Amino acid sequence: MIVPQYWAEARVQHKGRRRQITVRRFGWSDASQTEAQAHAERRAWQALEDVRDGEPLARREPRVPYNGAEGVPIREEVVERHGASVITRNAYGARCLNTPDVLFVDIDFQQGPSQRFAQGLFAAIALPALLLGWLLQSATLLAALLCLALFVASVLPERLHGLFLAFHGGAGALARRRVGRFLAAHPEWNLRLYRTPAGMRVLATQRTFASDDPAVAACFAALGADPLYARMCLRQRCFRARLSAKPWRIGIAGRRGLGHWPVAAERLPLRRHWVERYEARAQDYAACRFVESLGSGVIDPAVAAVLRLHDELSGAGSQRPLA
């Protein structure tokens, strides 16, 4: 896991007889802005040489904070450092805990039926309709049956999904059953469960993990981890948990002043004003709420410090509303 303190961008050019090649690359450092700029220059010149040699590289790296980009670490403002763990401010202003080896699992409850299910239902109705229309040689009947199939496929999946959740006690109960099945197969694990506004957060405490550990991939699959989260963990070689509220959930609309980190010096006062307003409102909310601990009961000493930090800063033990 790399979460640099300083960032820079370099731009280099090569003018040939027939074309001009311009390449931009980011650089980073924990030591100084000067070192970050030098790193950016080295990466840019190397990329230019590779492009001139015919490699199909992007001329410019996307200016994004945390998207699992290959070769580029997490690009967010560093708020605090606690040993190997780093607290950053993400693209929409919330504080996030980043840790290289303490396994957090982010589970989003599915609010509606999957698109694949709706498409399959439409096909199951439409194909017989097409066959019937063709056999009867009736274009009018065919059109009517296809309209009926489209209507049913747009309404029925939502109803069926609701009935499915109700029958199983809700999305939370389904997630809890997945956790139970996983622990039955892995009795040495200990999992702490937290409720989030849109799902569940799970923290494994019995030992530490590298993000590319096969046990992590198996855990993600078994618990139904958010696919984007799982992919970013692997690429950024870390695990991550949001510690403060999403701004739109606490009445702060828009992100004017935040910008992509690092922001220009002239925009820093505007950013500071936004952050102060956000933090004043966010202190009345929690990012998650502790529900229960299941499994072996083992808490590795290396995990314990991160656990305490997470629970304190996320408000997991408070009665504040979730946001």
UniProtKB/TrEMBL annotation:
Q: Which domain of life is it from?
A: Bacteria
Q: What are the protein's UniProt keywords?
A: Membrane, Transmembrane, Transmembrane helix
Q: What transmembrane ranges does the database entry give? A: 141-157
Species source reads: Geopseudomonas guangdongensis
Q: What is this protein called?
A: Transmembrane protein
